[in-house]
Amino acid sequence: ADYRALGAGRRLTSLERTEREAIVRALDESDGNKSLAAHRLGVARSTLYRKIRALGLENETFGS
Q1: DSSP code for 59
Q2: For the residues of 19-50, what is the DSSP string, one character each?
Q3: Going by C-beta distance under 8 Å and a sequence separation of 6 or more, which residues neighbour residue 56?
Q4: What is the pTM of this model?
Q5: Using an 8 Å Cβ cutoff, are 24 and 62 in contact?
Q6: Contact 16, 56 (CB under 8 A)
Q7: Range of 1's domain?
């Protein structure tokens, strides 16, 4: 279930899985602070939000 995208059961590609893992790790390490996570990932905050939506992470809770 962790490796499925939104939609009709489409599996994530290996690149999408890698991006998802990096985003989840950055958000966990940033206690859910998306600005800090985006900075750590070296991407714009808007890019992080877009990736979060695309990877189906918008309802996840991150951090401690």
Answers
A1: T
A2: HHHHHHHHHHHTTT-HHHHHHHHTS-HHHHHH
A3: 4, 5, 6
A4: 0.81
A5: yes
A6: no
A7: 1-64
Q: Could you say which DSSP state residue 7 is in? A: S
pLDDT tens digits, one per residue of 17-64: 999 999 999 999 999 999 999 999 999 999 999 999 999 898 888 876
CB 40 within 8 A of CB 26: yes
Give the CATH number of the domain where residue 11 resides: 1.10.10.60
What SS3 class is residue 11?
strand
Total domains present in the chain: 1
Measure the CA–CA gap between 60 and 40, rounded to whole angstroms: 19
